[in-house]
Amino acid sequence: MAQNLLDLARERESISRADLVRKTGLAVGTISNRVGRLVREQWLVEEMTGAGQNRRARPGRKGIRLRVNPERAFVAGVELDRHTIRSVVCDMAYQIRCQMTTRSDVEKEGDGFLCRLMDAIRSLRKEFPRADHLAALGVTLPGSVDPERGVVIHSPRMGQWAGVPLAALAEKELGLPVRVDNVARCMTFAEWRQGAAKDVPDFLFLNIAEGVGSGMMLGGRLYGGGENMGGEFGHMNINLEGTPPRSARCECGNMNCLQALIRCPAIVENVRAALKDGV
User: Fold this and answer.
1) What whole-number distance in Å separates Cα of residue 79 and Cα of residue 138?
2) Is there a contact between 14 and 66 (Cβ–Cβ < 8 Å)?
3) What pTM did the predictor assign?
4) Which of 23, 93, 140, 263 could bond to 186 as cystine, CB 3.0-4.6 Å?
């Protein structure tokens, strides 16, 4: 419930206790107690507003608005891909306070890529002046991930990672709580919270780039499905007539996966081939 109250305050930039009562349906006393605790713990801050901002208020009467304290804590996020490590720090108002990009190559570095990841996070902490207030770390990457255990089940794009306990390794090295999940699922959740699909209960998110990823939001909840692969159809085999395109071999080793046919590098390669053939 505390998280819900913070979310409501964050959505409006500021909110009154009366608004929280109306939106949550909770009793006045319940809201008063829970808001009081959040204020004491500095998750929320109170702001006085003058009577001029409320025509129904009696002359001289002050109103109190609540807003999220952006400086209360910070979270770090890391996006892993085959050639890059992108890292950011955000405050409690979802504002990016620090960001870095590190070039790497998981295929060449092998196990050393994990060391490069830890180095990138340490560099981010050195760059950010409030690093001692980092509350947690989130890591996203392409592939099949068990977010509850923090294990990368299989990721062809990350040098055929399989069974990598990434969350445990990072927590031990960095001393922070770590959450690991599939990048498309995280993008789906971000669009639902702050993007084009904000508060839309049911939608499909499709990400086409170096690979093809997707996520599903059903009833306002991320749909995981079997082995957390719900909505992932990039490796669905497509039966083509005639000769398959030259880019039809997928990085997973199979032929004619949808990802191999529609990801950005495949589109570029096919266009170049067509131009060469005079199409």
Assistant:
1) 9
2) yes
3) 0.79
4) 140
